[in-house]
Amino acid sequence: MGGGPSTLLDKPWKALPKNNQESLHFMKWYKPRNKEASHLRILLHGPVGAGKSSFINSVDSVLQSRVTGRALTDATSGGSFTKEYKTYKISNGPDTFYSFVFNDIMGLEQKANNGVHVEDIKLALRGHVRDGYKFNSHPLTEGDPSYNPSPKLDDRVHILVSVIPADSVSLISDEVIKKMREVRLAASAMGIPQVAILTKVDKACAEAKQDIRNVYKSRYLDEQVNTFSELLGLQANCIFLVKNYAKENDTQDDTDALILCALRQMINYGEDFLNDL
């Protein structure tokens, strides 16, 4: 675990929301200004066990003010626990939903034919993958019932989020990084904005575990952000630190603030993309 004596900076390098209620109000009333889009679609990708499904659950938990677990996770699985392409909507009151949705995908693995295929992620970015598609040993092809030949704007991805555990940034294999970069380049060619989240910050840094408010003061986590920035070619100011809800039975304001900070930027960037179309 990173961290130790004199590992905290005097000032945080990223500001968190001063008032979670303002962020929650923004989420509640957000609607895409582009009338062709009824929602903003957020796609999460990254290696097996990075915390993609847990992040969806954590966002749901923040917005429901209670810990939830709709996206199934597995703490002991050696492979990806997510087996199919699924859209997650989050309740915003009786019979209504927030105007952003999440898509979770199978995790990336080191071996070429293991985990999700890069080509499947590229197809998902363009909106060609239907809900319920089961990832398998070969990529989705035209003519398959799960292939959407005529995607609408709602079907396409509006922001791509790379998810990596903060406690193993330097341990990610070159093969997985290569796959993630290939996905990033494909998204860039489509004009899709991108951010990244580093999860499990409490496992990576002793100061963060002691007080989650220390995350953006941690020298060690700052180093992990810079390392990941160099590996993936993503600007450091587009990389966010989060702690997913895993052991807690109740939500906590400081953990919520980290999640809301990342989510707000995802929506801002995705909204800019929709407005530029």
Explain this structure:
Helix content is 34%, strand content 11%. With 277 residues, the protein is an alpha/beta fold. It has a single domain (20-276), classed as Rossmann fold (3-Layer(aba) Sandwich), CATH 3.40.50. The protein has a six-stranded mixed beta sheet with strand order 2-3-1-4-5-6, with helices on both faces. Helix 2 (52-64) packs across helix 8 (253-276) and helix 3 (118-126) packs parallel to helix 4 (174-189).
Q: Brief overview, please?
A:
This protein is an alpha/beta fold and 277 residues long.
| Fraction of helical residues | 25-40%
Encode the helix/strand succession as letters.
Answer: HEHEEHEHEHHHEH
CATH topology: Rossmann fold
Provide the β-strand percentage band. 5-15%
Biggest sheet strand order reads 2-3-1-4-5-6
Number of domains: 1
Q: Give the CATH class.
A: Alpha Beta
Mean pLDDT, to the nearest integer, reads 90
Largest sheet: 6 strands, mixed
CATH superfamily: P-loop containing nucleotide triphosphate hydrolases
- Show unreliable segments: 74-80
Structural class: alpha/beta
Keywords:
single chain, 277 residues, alpha/beta, Rossmann fold, six-stranded mixed sheet
SSE inventory with pairings:
Elements: H1 20-29, E1 40-45, H2 52-64, E2 86-88, E3 100-104, H3 118-126, E4 159-165, H4 174-189, E5 194-199, H5 201-204, H6 206-210, H7 219-232, E6 239-241, H8 253-276
Parallel strand pairs: 1-3, 1-4, 4-5, 5-6
Antiparallel strand pairs: 2-3
Helix pairs in contact: 1-8, 2-8, 3-4
